[in-house]
């Protein structure tokens, strides 16, 4: 299995063209979920930069295709961030610039994706800011917080009483392992594992109204805002 580290698409199966389906008619078992994660040089979407992007698409828990690339940031990676992520300035020196990576990501996710991540609000805010900064505002509708699932927000409701809702803690509580935290692909696979385990548990819970469609789960999750974090 090949992985793109320099901006080319790495498809694990043939690309599947999805019909445009109303969210209240799109069954969770049929929906394509685009789970994504960014690594960045800091937490300020306006001032800091993206250093890595991974997005993996799943249907009913099965992986369909993957996009993954390092990104040449517009500022040096601070030492503390390098220690956290393992991504060094040497590693990204010849990586694609952010405008190229964002264009490829937008093409990968498609016209109306359902985006998923742990604290996905952060990723979407960062992407939207960088799209705007790089003259790619036409892609903003592809990263719509109203069509996104946050595995942290889902876990807060589905798994009450955890001492923390950090990704590793939630993953451990549902039997998902992350052997390389703070790298984008490992974090994407962790978030996907959390998502599908929570969906399975919710659908098995007789006290919860039917969760059959994407709209059902969005309604159960509730609106996402940064303030919820």
Question: What layout of secondary structure does this protein have?
Answer:
Layout (H helix, E strand, L loop, with lengths): L31 E9 L9 E10 L2 E9 L8 H7 L3 H4 L5 H12 L4 E4 L2 H14 L14 E3 H8 L8 H7 L10 H21 L9 H8 L8
Parallel strand pairs: 1-4, 4-5
Antiparallel strand pairs: 1-2, 2-3
Helix pairs in contact: 5-7, 6-7
In summary, what is this structure?
The chain contains eight helices and five strands, in the order E-E-E-H-H-H-E-H-E-H-H-H-H.
Description:
With 229 residues, this protein is α/β, with parallel strands linked by helices. It has a single domain (32-228), classed as Nucleotidyltransferase, domain 5 (2-Layer Sandwich). The protein is built from eight helices and five strands; from the N terminus they run E-E-E-H-H-H-E-H-E-H-H-H-H. The protein has helices at residues 79-85, 89-92, 98-109, 120-133, 151-158, 167-173, 184-204, 214-221, and strands spanning 32-40, 50-59, 62-70, 114-117, 148-150. The chain has a five-stranded mixed β-sheet with strand order 3-2-1-4-5, with helices on both faces. Strand 2 (50-59) and strand 3 form a beta hairpin.
Structural class: alpha/beta
Q: Order of strands in the sheet with the most strands?
A: 3-2-1-4-5
In sequence order, what are the helices and strands, one letter per element?
EEEHHHEHEHHHH
Domain module count: 1
Low-confidence stretches: 1-19
- Measured on Cα atoms, how large is the radius of gyration? 17 Å
**Assembly type:** single chain
Main CATH class? Alpha Beta
- CATH architecture assignment name: 2-Layer Sandwich
* Total helical elements: 8
């Amino acid at each position: 299995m090949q992985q793109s580290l320099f901006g080319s698409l790495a498809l694990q199966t043939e690309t599947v063209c999805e019909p445009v389906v109303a969210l209240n008619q799109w069954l969770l078992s049929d929906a394509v979920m685009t789970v994504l994660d960014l690594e960045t040089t800091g937490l300020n979407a306006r001032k800091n930069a993206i250093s890595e992007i991974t997005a993996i698409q799943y249907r009913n828990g099965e992986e369909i295709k993957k996009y993954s690339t390092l990104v040449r940031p517009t500022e040096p990676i601070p030492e503390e961030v390098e220690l956290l992520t393992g991504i060094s300035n040497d590693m990204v020196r010849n990586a694609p610039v952010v405008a190229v990576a964002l264009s490829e990501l937008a093409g990968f996710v498609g016209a109306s994706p359902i985006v998923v991540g742990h604290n996905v609000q952060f990723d979407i805010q960062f992407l939207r800011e960088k799209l705007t900064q790089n003259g790619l505002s036409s892609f903003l509708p592809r990263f719509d917080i109203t069509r996104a699932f946050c595995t942290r927000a889902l876990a807060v409701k589905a798994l009450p009483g955890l001492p923390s809702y950090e990704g590793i803690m939630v993953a451990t509580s549902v039997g998902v392992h992350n052997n390389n935290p703070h790298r984008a692909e490992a974090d994407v696979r962790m978030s996907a594992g959390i998502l599908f385990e929570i969906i399975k548990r919710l659908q098995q819970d007789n006290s919860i109204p039917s969760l059959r469609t994407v709209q059902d789960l969005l309604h159960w999750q509730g609106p996402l805002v940064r303030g919820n974090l």
